[in-house]
Design goal:
The complex is a heterodimer of chains A (94) and B (197). Chain A is built from 3 helices and no strands. With 94 residues, chain A is mostly helical. In chain A, helix 1 runs antiparallel to helix 2. Chain B has one domain: Four Helix Bundle (Hemerythrin (Met), subunit A). Classes of the chains: A mainly alpha (94), B mainly alpha (197).
């Protein structure tokens, strides 16, 4: 039986993930104070994506699950990116 | 011999999470298009949001996510008592988030800024769009937070009773996954609504 993964993430690892996420949050806030005009949104979304990646990988344990889970997540995100691209191409080049 | 399939249970939870990602994804898409159509109005309207409360809630949510993840470690190590404490801390964070939201929304409703109000009707179309999305997206997010809180309360009771233990904790993992989803959505909501002014 393959029930309950044997991998135990140490408390310290979770603490470090939290510290990283908090640091990235303050980086986002500082970046939006500095006016980079059009770049601000891009940088903020980039940092948010990094944070999302960290949450998915460590807190949501994807790193230690069967690769089937990662394949599913990547496919769903790819579908979502396609939806965004098709919709934006419709709106922007109409 | 007991029949159970923990990988299957987690896969089911993930498939549910995918539907949630696409639900919020649709709203983020509406936001992106409205923002490109009404960029100046969105900038003006976003100034009315309280970035300080937004930041506090971000910290609260990130901390609560970490304690849920740690509670899994605690249960795996057979320390259910610590897991209950960690889950209780998570629930306290959820409550703190709600209190902050109460003050945040309360202030806006007090100054007459809510969907359908006279003030809202008098605003430009772009600003109405911003505040409608703000109320709908943070409202839907808060609904998920409440549901997550209920799930984690049930999980906490089961950890306390010992029905969730080192040999069987997939319910805690799935409850945790849902809670991390709430965190994940906020990671994008916070900069898009509060910071980009």
């Amino acid at each position: 039986m393959h029930n309950e993964t044997a991998h135990i993430t140490p408390y310290r690892a979770h603490a470090w993930v939290l510290i990283t996420l908090l640091t990235l949050t303050f980086v986002t806030i500082t970046v939006t104070w500095v006016d980079l005009s059009a770049l601000t949104v891009l940088v903020a979304m980039l940092i948010a994506s990094v944070k999302a990646y960290i949450v998915l990988t460590y807190f949501m344990h994807l790193k230690f699950e069967s690769s089937l889970f990662r394949v599913f997540v990547v496919m769903v995100l790819a579908i979502y990116v396609l939806v965004i691209l098709f919709t934006l191409s419709d709106y922007l080049f109409r | 011999m007991e029949h159970r399939d923990d990988i299957g249970a987690k896969l089911g939870m993930w498939i549910f999470i995918f539907t949630e990602i696409l639900l919020f994804g649709g709203l983020f898409l509406v936001y992106a298009i409205m923002r490109s159509n009404y960029s100046t109005e969105f900038h003006q309207a976003a100034h009315h949001l309280n970035a300080f409360i937004g930041t506090i809630n971000t910290i609260v949510l990130l901390a609560s996510s970490a304690t849920v993840a740690m509670s899994i470690t605690a249960v795996q190590k057979g320390n259910n008592k610590l897991a209950v404490i960690l889950l209780f801390f998570t629930l306290l964070c959820a409550a703190a988030f709600m209190v902050n939201k109460y003050f945040e929304w309360g202030h806006k409703i007090h100054i007459g800024l809510y969907p359908g109000s006279d003030l809202m009707v008098s605003l430009s179309h772009g600003q109405v769009m911003f505040f409608s999305l703000y109320y709908f997206m943070t409202g839907l997010h808060m609904f998920h937070l409440v549901v997550g809180g209920i799930i984690l309360t049930i999980v906490m009771i089961k950890v306390q009773k010992g029905t969730i233990n080192a040999g069987r904790f997939v319910l805690l993992e799935n409850g945790g996954l849902y809670w991390h989803l709430v965190d994940l959505i906020w990671i994008f909501l916070f900069p898009l609504l509060y910071l980009i002014t």
